[in-house]
Amino acid sequence: DTGVSQNPRHKITKRGQNVTFRCDPISEHNRLYWYRQTLGQGPEFLTYFQNEAQLEKSRLLSDRFSAERPKGSFSTLEIQRTEQGDSAMYLCASSRDQVEQYFGPGTRLTVT
Amino acid sequence: LAKTTQPISMDSYEGQEVNITCSHNNIATNDYITWYQQFPSQGPRFIIQGYKTKVTNEVASLFIPADRKSSTLSLPRVSLSDTAVYYCLVGDVENRDDKIIFGKGTRLHILP
pLDDT tens digit string along B1-16? Predict the structure, then answer.
């Protein structure tokens, strides 16, 4: 199965530490998206890339958050100086067209 | 982006047809209607998308009346494995509006 993969699946970190998540999209997909989801809520859009260009960022993406997609393939999402409010599921999705986004299994972040 | 309103939760029984209605009174001319399904601890999965009238695939049907101010996702003969959260989304697909706005979705619980 060559679906969207995310690593790690779970991350526990202490407040103030930096964390980095990786997303590997489906290989022929040129668009890649990051979302954040907290319990009982729908996913919230964070940012998206078309190839290596970051085209849109949500206001949710504070200056502690940065995302990259250096070669238009995999992407990383880094959170600096984590806070307890950053605890959530971080979802990555990719698409080739605008009809359907394929989501990965997510990375669950717990900040203690 | 047009806002959507869906029931917070629904219960049904195995073998029944389930209809989930979504209101989107401010839908724009270029907006499409898309439904996603999400199981616990997984990313959302695309179910169906439509613009008007009726769309059917192997999983579900989507009914959209002429005024497009609402839509109904129909799941035929549900099983226990259809227990999930279902999200209705509205967005301008053709004009590269890739940002998907999820609401809280409808939590569907299928009973034996």
Answer: 568 999 999 999 999 9
